Amino acid sequence: DAGITQSPRHKVTETGTPVTLRCHQTENHRYMYWYRQDPGHGLRLIHYSYGVKDTDKGEVSDGYSVSRSKTEDFLLTLESATSSQTSVYFCAIRGQQGSHNEQFFGPGTRLTVL
Amino acid sequence: KQEVTQIPAALSVPEGENLVLNCSFTDSAIYNLQWFRQDPGKGLTSLLLIQSSQREQTSGRLNASLDKSSGRSTLYIAASQPGDSATYLCAVSTTSGTYKYIFGTGTRLKVLA
Known about the structure:
The complex is a heterodimer.
Chain A: E1 4-7, E2 10-13, E3 19-25, E4 32-38, E5 42-51, E6 54-57, E7 64-70, E8 73-78, E9 87-94, E10 103-105, E11 109-113
Parallel strand pairs in A: 2-11
Antiparallel strand pairs in A: 1-3, 3-8, 4-5, 4-9, 5-6, 7-8, 9-10, 9-11
Chain B: E1 4-5, E2 10-14, E3 19-25, E4 30-38, E5 44-51, E6 56-59, E7 62-67, E8 72-77, E9 86-94, E10 101-103, E11 107-112
Parallel strand pairs in B: 2-11
Antiparallel strand pairs in B: 1-3, 3-8, 4-5, 4-9, 6-7, 7-8, 9-10, 9-11
């Protein structure tokens, strides 16, 4: 399972509150990704990181920020949650060199914004 | 802009049948293509990865092919079993160096006992 954990696994929050989701990996992978999964849209990339303090936007980054202060943790923050951010959030890592970019996913966080 | 399509969206087959799932993409300049399986309420499990220079990959009863020039990949499942019931997703990786994936919306497979 590539040693990826996500926390929390489930969260219910109210509109306007800040929310932080955590992705933790144990195998020193350089690349980490945050996706959201919604019915009819599949998985869409929110932000990704290519090293400590190195991050960039994906296709649906509005309303989200990320931080990576150490290799093993990649945090996704919703500064002021909205109902449109109700979704399942997945973290992924890119396998090490030689894996030909195979990506491995965490178990997901189900977020409900009321 | 790369777009990935999976047809059909849902499929039901009797146990034991061989089946093919389709994935098409609009831009042939890909780095690789990966097939995943997702069980309800779960994360994604990697099934097969095909590099852009390869034509196919096999793992057990699964065989994935890639035709870059036509923008197509197929996932062949032999002798299907009820345990194969899941959603199957394909994703293509860009060549930009950031290894970002574009996902299809998946095919929901149900294998009937």
